Structure formats: structure tokens, C-alpha cells
Amino acid sequence: MGYSKKSVPLFKNKGSMTPDTKKLYRTAFGLGIFTIVYNILEGIVSISFGISDESLTLFGFGADSLIEVLSGIGIIQMIIRIRTSGSDNRSDFEKRALRITGAAFYILVAGLVLSAGYNVYIGHKPEATLWGVIISSISIIVMIILMVLKLQVGSKLNSKAIIADAHCTRVCIYMSVVLLISSAIYELTGFGWIDIIGTLGLAWFSWSEGHECFEKARTEANCSCH
After folding, report:
1. Cα separation, 133 vs 113, whole angstroms
2. Using an 8 Å Cβ cutoff, are 119 and 8 in contact?
3. Any residues with CB less than 8 A from the CB of 79 and at least 6 apart, and which?
4. Which residues, at least 6 apart from 93, have a Cβ–Cβ distance to it below 8 Å?
5. Sign of CA pseudo-dihedral 33, 76, 57, 111
6. What residue segments make up the domains of the chain, in order of their start?
């Protein structure tokens, strides 16, 4: 039996699809994979330096990044679903991933708030926050590029779900800005309370993300961040 020399699509599809559309879905899938890999690396590096520098804000930022990996897996599943069936309804896997991610965010919020309260009690200050400045600056640049690329792909595919995912990237940008501001202020002034304030800022956004996850699991609503 002979084999066709045509390239095999990344995913099977019952309907016809133009080469340009296939390429766009491959791009969306590639962006999703990159987001997962980047969040894993960012999470590990941030947690490591957060521990060594005793910066709760940087540690919390890293923990959030690792939780975002769970969300990223759900996004990959979403792209596969849209690519194969065109269905707008979330699969059971996606809903389960959203609930697990939401619960993880709520646990992170509790941990950050309790840790911030303990640091206030003992008067703890970070050893340094330079790595917080570096990591947050890189994160802002990467997340902005990802958001723009996802918006472009989503617009060309006319996919509300992919566009919504792109808008949700803004929360990651906001959290990076919180880390950047708190780290920069401490590095320049030595004002110890800013690490606590930054941690509570991250806790607020983490709570918002957790609420968003459960809302999306309960309904078919897309991200409302924008």
C-alpha cells in the first residue's frame, strides 16, 4: 500500500479545512505548549529565588505560574476540541481542569494571606528583590507578546474562545506588574512592608482567577477579564 506525500494534519477533522486554517490551529496549539513550558520554568525559577531571597511576593508569583500550567493544559484541550469538532461546549475534561485549577488558586490565596500575616507579626523583610525585578520584567514582555499573537490567531480563526484566552493573559501581566513594582520599590528604598503589600496584591488576583475558573466550569462563559 502506498502512502500519500501530503503532510498529516496535527488533529483529525471531519470537515474540510484550508491549509491556512490548519496552520493557524497549529500556531494556536504551539502557543499553548509554549505557555505551559514557560510557566513551568518561570514557576521553578521564581520559587527558587523567592526562597533564597526570602521574598514572599516572588515565591507567590512562582506558585501562581505553576498553577497556570493546569489552566494551560485545559486550553490545549480546548484548542483540540475546537479543531476537531468546532464545538463551543466545554468537555468534561476541561470543566474538571477548571475546577482543579480554581481550587488550587483558592488554596494559594489562603497560603499567601496567612504567610503575609505571619511576616507582619515577625517583622520579616526580604533579603533582596533584584530577581523579582528581572523575572517580572521578562514575564511582562513575554506575556504581552503571547497575548498579541493569540489575539491575532483567534481573530483570524474567528474563535471567541481563543480570543478570550488571549484576554485572560492580561491577568498574568497585571501580576507581573505587581511583582515588578513591589520588587523595585524594595530594591530602591528597603521599605519592607512593600513585600507584604505585593503579596496581598497577588492574592487578590489569584482569588479573581480562582473565581473565574469556577464560573467558566459552571457555565459556558469565556474569560471576562477584558
Report:
1. 22
2. no
3. 25, 28, 29, 32, 162
4. 74, 77
5. negative
6. 19-218
The candidate with the shortest Cα–Cα distance to 173, out of 136, 201, 207, 206, is 136
Show the 3-state SS of 86-126.
Answer: CCCCCCHHHHHHHHHHHHHHHHHHHHHHHHHHHHHHHCCCC
Instruction: Enter the pTM of the model.
Output: 0.86
Q: What angle do CA 148, 149, 154 make, to 5 degrees?
A: 100
CATH for 19-218, among 2.60.40, 1.20.58, 3.40.50, 1.20.1510? 1.20.1510
Residue pLDDT tens, the chain, 226 long? 444 444 434 444 445 578 888 899 999 999 999 999 999 999 999 999 999 999 999 999 999 999 999 889 988 988 888 888 766 667 788 888 889 999 999 999 999 999 999 999 999 999 989 999 999 999 999 999 999 999 999 999 888 888 888 888 899 999 999 999 999 999 999 998 999 999 999 999 999 999 988 988 887 665 545 4
Grid coordinates belonging to 66? 505553576
